[in-house]
Amino acid sequence: MDARAIERFWSKVDVRGRDECWEWQASGSKGYGRLMMDGVTWGAHRLAFTLVKGRIPDGMCVLHSCDNPPCCNPAHLFIGTHADNMRDMAKKGRSSSSRKTHCPRGHALVEGNLIKRRPGRVSRECLTCRRVGNLNQEALRKKRARARADYQSKRNDPEFKKKRREINRAHYYRKKAEASNGKG
Question: What is the C-alpha R_g of the chain?
Fold first, then answer.
């Protein structure tokens, strides 16, 4: 990057005191500054970090300690993984999941009615809904097992075999008729 390009970048940053946010003043996306530099689109905060603190390691993110997306103050920026960023977001209550007070079925998402995922995960789940879902799944499994057992017990019955053959034959001829009429 040449000196003119770097000067052009800093001219779009409202540089203030060391502890204040230095906000990006030009275009952006979802609150984060964006700019083209040497044919590459940069996040303004990522470029500020690179210019002042050096290269960003592959696979790493530049995180804001100030939680202000347009901030380009290198003192407010630090390196972390995507997981670090998600943990930081959840800890500070900025994830959509952490702001939810009720599940879609209206149950309160309070301590005692929450399934918390692995530590550091953002998503939360309603324990009441999970229990109801598990009960429904168990009932469905039992119903299918009964139907299977019922079928197994009838399978060798001559009347049952005759009825199955009739059903299969009727299905076969119906499909054949539909195919010849151009429906299938």
Answer: 31
Domains of the chain, residue spans: 3-80
The two structure tokens encoding residue 8? 């052009």
Extract the runs of DSSP E, i.e. beta strands, from 28-87. 28-29, 32-37, 40-43, 61-64, 77-80
CA distance 114 to 128: 8
- Beta strand 23-24 with 28-29 is unpaired
Burial of 71 (0-12, 13-18, 19+ CB in 10 A): buried
Token match 């940069």: residue? 42
Burial label for 149, CB within 10 Å (0-12, 13-18, 19+), is: exposed
Query: Which residues have C-beta within 8 Å of that of residue 13, sequence separation ≥ 6?
Result: 22, 23, 24, 25, 44, 48, 72
Q: Which helix (H) or strand (E) holds 116?
A: strand 114-116
List the structure tokens of 91: 């800890």
72-122 tens-digit pLDDT? 999 999 999 998 988 888 777 777 777 778 888 898 888 888 776 666 554
Query: 31 and 70 in contact (C-beta within 8 Å)?
Result: yes
